[in-house]
Amino acid sequence: MRRIYILRANEEDGRLLDALTAAGCSTDESALENPVCPRCGSSTLLAFAEDDQFQVVLWEKVDDTDGAGAHAWYLICSRFDCAYQEEVERVLDPMGAEVFDQWSASAEFEEYAGLMERHPIELMDLIEHFRAVLATGQNRKLTCMLEEAEWRYEESLEWRWKWIRSVPLSKRIRFTLVVEGDEDEIEETDEIEGTFVTATDDGFMVLRDPGEACMLVQARNLGRFQPQRPKTQELPKPRKQEIAEVLSAGERGSEARKRQVVYNMSPNHWVVIRGYHLRLDDVNRLGQYKVRCWDPAAAEALSLTPHGERYWEGLFRRSEIEERYDLKIMIKTKGHWVDMVAYMGEEKWPYVRTEDPAVAADLGLTEQIPLYPPETEEEIRKYRRSWSGGVPESEIEDRQEVRLYHWPLPEFKVR
User: Fold this and answer.
1) Same domain, 346 and 298
2) Do residues 102 and 26 both lie within one domain?
3) Is 219 in the same domain as 299?
4) pLDDT range class, residue 262, cuts 50, 70, 90
5) What is the rounded CA–CA span in Å between residue 85 and residue 46?
6) I need a labelling partner for 114 at 20 to 30 A (CA). Which of 239, 265, 336, 413 fits?
């Protein structure tokens, strides 16, 4: 029986790297491949049987507790019409086992099935297909996938109903419809604009422009809609009108916009290896630390790989990392220390942020309105207001870099 080890979210302890090295396998993350279906060559999924339930693993991350009581694990084909199924042994020790990347398997299945991206009427077509196939005989895999599709359908509908219920009467709205076109192809209509009249049992009624014609819309056919927050937001201008205004704004308006552009700063993560401070790129799926370097001395000492003129990269295990920290830039202006989070305009003024309303008022910063404001009690409780804006170079009194350590934590100094 094949032994399957499911890749963990954190492999920094090096167990997997040791197993791959012992098996003579590549420790390059790009070489990691899941088993394929021996019948059709398609990607595979994991499944397990627990009590009377058969569960296909469709989520991105598998914990040790998932399927802990299962009496059997299986490798199955991800395609709806392929019946390949093989019993396997799930192990928690990678030594001598095949590695299975659940995140990759979930992504490949989503690309194939598109359950998350489908509109309600598309999901209903898929649900009806599953039901028709299951009517001809029992199929544990399709039964589980049918349940997933039904859940996605209900979630997709609820998202639309949540919007419909929040639209005030006489509110101006804009939306598209998803309908079945020729040869049962799913099509999306052009944007429709009108005045919201009332919600109905199936959706809502709208007075459609032009001509104030009354139109009945079913929630299951609703595609894109605006405004996203109808209780607090007004209907934005049509995209074509916004583009036309930008193009006609002229050079003066263009220069004004340039001064308002905010440029994100690159992530400022660092590690220390044998005393050398290196920029951390990321930690890959195998638990390796990828670093960047522009120092020839460090590159030579650490045997880094050249990737350009005076630029090197390398991969290291967690056990080789002495320190890990983030570098935060702070500036002092009008007597206040604030975090610098980006640059602003062609002058590259510091763009700062604070959660202190008094500091924000002194500096004339603007409150940041989240794209999706908190709604539930828990979201409101956790939400923290913040203010941001640009600071001219002439108003900067001082600046400093602050290290925020992940590990080891620096000792507290007693003065």
Assistant:
1) no
2) yes
3) no
4) confident
5) 10
6) 239
The number of folded domains in the chain is 4
311 and 332 in a single domain? The answer is no
pLDDT digits 0-9 by tens, 209-239: 767 789 999 999 999 999 988 988 899 887 7
Cα-Cα end-to-end distance for the chain = 64
What is the tens place of the pLDDT at every residue in 326-343? Answer: 999 999 999 999 999 999
Torsion angle, CA of 15/19/22/28, rounded to 10 degrees? -100
Dihedral, CA of residue 316, residue 322, residue 324 and residue 329, to nearest 10:
-120
pTM of the model: 0.83
Cis peptide before 210 (omega within 30 of 0): yes
Whether residue 369 sits in one domain with residue 341: yes
Task: State the virtual CA torsion across 298, 302, 304, 308 in degrees, nearest 10.
Answer: 10
Give me the domain span that covers residue 202: 162-239
SS3 state at 301: helix
pLDDT of residue 131: 95
